[in-house]
Every structure is written in structure tokens, then in C-alpha cells.
Design a protein that fits this description.
CATH superfamily of the largest domain: Histidine kinase-like ATPase, C-terminal domain
Helix content: 25-40%
Oligomer: single chain
Number of helices: 9
Number of strands: 13
Largest sheet: 6 strands, antiparallel
Shape: globular
Radius of gyration: 21 Å
Structural class: alpha/beta
Distance between the termini: 28 Å
Number of domains: 2
Length: 308
């Protein structure tokens, strides 16, 4: 795999690991979760500072990678938001340093110039998430919230193949892992319109939630296989869950089985079965992609988007 041109292989940094303190209750008071924003653009600091402000958070600012690393050596940050292109140490190199000296600290990578190689490299180095600028501030805020509450997350996503047009991953059957992998995979197709990206992300999330909840039983010991394939005329997601599969004839609790004259019949069935509200996943996904194809067993599926 091609390593980012902004990453230096010659870098060698050794320092002690600070002890995490975020969220600890001391004498009845909770220590604020510390967030470090690392970007050379003052506007980003203002934007993120306002969006992420909360009484239980302390937000610090750094304008270059070297200063950020010096701070991280001294302060146990819960989360670091790092831009890729900065003076001194770049964001991807900072990610690798943080993972080595303070693995409990989560790093969210931001960049103006995106590439599949950088996204895959960030996943392999255990970045918590990856966002291209400009990004919906609400989406980044939600990911920060997820990062601050996530525990035992480091091996939730694993890269098994990293060809630019064929990227395969494994993820644990956890909701947080689903949200993270959907954001990573969204970043692999920056040439699509925002509307197309939203539709694909929503469709993929619905299928992955079904895979982790029903196929994997929401058991983090179970894994789902996700493959992204980009051709000249199509974009394909392949998903395989560890479950026994299903038959469409047995989906009375899903909206896809509703008769035309009773579009919400499945809701009553779900309530009688004690299931959470929902059941629109497959029906919604069919409307958001060009083709949705299941194997005979029902535990493997292709989501296909045709490109102009």
C-alpha cells in the first residue's frame, strides 16, 4: 500500500505514556474529558470549539504537530482531532506517535486532500475516525460523542485487503464499530455528490446494523466481513455476517413484508414480539441503492451503486 506522502518513515520518538484521567470522579467531582484540536487554521478551532463545547469537556488548541505532541506527552487527552497538513509533524505522523505513547487516546483525522491510501493507512494505525473537509459539523460532533464513551475499541476494525479498488475489512458486532466503519468507507468515494454519499452511507449502515444485531447477535466476539469494490462503472459493498441467515418469507416483522394496503403492519408484529421499533432497513436500502442482492442463505449481500 502506498504510504501517505506526508508521512515520514525516518521519525523516531520515544516518551513516557501519561496515565488517562478523563471521566474519573474525585471527591464527588468528575474530571472533564480533555479534547485537543490540532490544526493550523484558526477558523477550524473556532468552529470545533463552539460545536464541541460542553460542561463536562475541556477543549485545548494546538496549531502544529510538534506542539501537539509536546502537550500529549504531558496531558492525558481523551480525544485528539488532528489535521493532516500542518507545519512540523503532520497529522498522520502524529496519529502514529499518539498510538505508541498513549494508546488510550483516540485520534480523529481531518483533511482537505483525501485519498483511499490515507484512509486505509489511518484505519490500520487505529485512527478512531476520518473526516474530509468540509464536513457536516453535526456528523463530526456525533463521532466525538461516540469516541468519548467508547471502550475497548482498538481492534474493532481490521484491514484484511488494501488495494485501492478492493478494500476488505472485519468489524466486531458493535454499534460503535458500525458507525465508525460507515464513516471510513464514506471517505473512500469523495468524488460522489453529497446526496449520493448520504444515500450510500445510510444504506450501508442499515445493512450493517442488521448484520451485527441479527447475524451477530450484538456479540462483540462475532465479526462481520465488509468489502468495498470500486469499478469504472459501479461501486459495490459486500457484507457477510456470522449468522445462519434468513428467508424473506420469515420477515413478517420487517417493513419489506408489509402488504401494499397495510404499510405499517410489521410494527404491530414487532411490538408483539418484543422487538425495538424499526424494521425498515431492507425496504429503505432498496430505495437508496440501484441493486440489493442477497445470497440464498441470507447472510451475504451486495449493495450496488451504478456510476455514470
Amino acid at each position: 500500500m502506498q504510504i501517505s506522502p506526508w508521512y515520514s518513515n525516518s521519525m523516531s520518538i520515544r516518551c513516557t505514556q501519561p496515565a488517562p484521567t478523563s471521566g474519573i470522579v474525585l471527591h464527588g467531582m468528575t474530571i472533564p474529558k480533555r479534547i485537543l484540536i490540532v490544526d493550523d487554521d484558526p477558523g477550524i478551532h473556532r468552529l470545533l470549539g463552539d460545536a464541541l463545547h460542553s460542561e463536562d469537556r475541556q477543549i485545548d488548541s494546538s496549531f502544529d504537530g510538534d506542539d501537539a505532541l509536546a502537550r500529549i506527552k504531558k496531558v492525558p487527552y481523551a480525544l485528539v482531532l488532528a489535521d493532516v497538513q500542518m507545519p512540523g509533524l503532520n497529522g498522520l505522523a502524529l496519529l502514529e506517535c499518539v498510538r505508541r505513547i498513549c494508546p488510550a487516546t483516540k485520534v480523529l483525522v481531518m483533511t482537505v486532500e483525501n485519498s483511499p491510501e490515507n484512509v486505509v493507512w489511518a484505519i490500520r494505525k487505529h485512527a478512531f475516525s476520518f473526516f474530509s473537509k468540509p464536513f457536516p459539523i453535526s456528523s463530526l460532533s456525533e463521532m466525538v460523542k461516540t469516541g468519548l464513551k467508547s471502550i475497548e475499541w482498538e481492534d474493532d476494525i481490521e484491514v484484511t485487503s488494501a488495494h485501492p479498488n478492493w478494500i476488505a475489512l472485519r468489524l466486531r458486532c458493535k454499534v460503535d464499530a458500525v458507525d465508525r466503519i460507515v464513516q471510513f468507507l464514506r471517505e473512500l468515494a469523495p468524488d460522489l455528490s453529497q446526496g449520493e454519499q448520504e444515500n450510500l452511507a445510510t444504506a450501508l449502515r442499515e445493512i450493517l446494523m442488521n448484520a451485527t444485531e441479527h447475524g451477530g447477535g450484538s456479540d462483540p466476539r462475532q465479526e462481520v466481513i465488509v468489502t468495498y469494490v470500486r469499478g469504472s462503472r459501479s461501486l459495490v459493498y459486500y457484507v457477510r455476517d456470522p449468522g445462519a441467515g434468513f428467508s424473506f418469507e420469515d420477515l413478517s416483522h420487517a417493513a419489506v413484508s408489509n402488504p401494499p394496503d397495510s404499510p405499517f403492519e410489521h410494527a404491530d408484529i414487532r411490538e408483539r414480539m418484543g422487538l425495538r421499533p424499526g424494521g425498515f432497513g431492507i425496504l429503505l436500502t432498496r430505495k437508496l441503492v440501484d441493486e440489493l442482492i442477497y445470497n440464498e442463505t441470507g447472510n451475504e449481500v451486495l449493495l450496488i451503486k451504478y456510476l455514470p
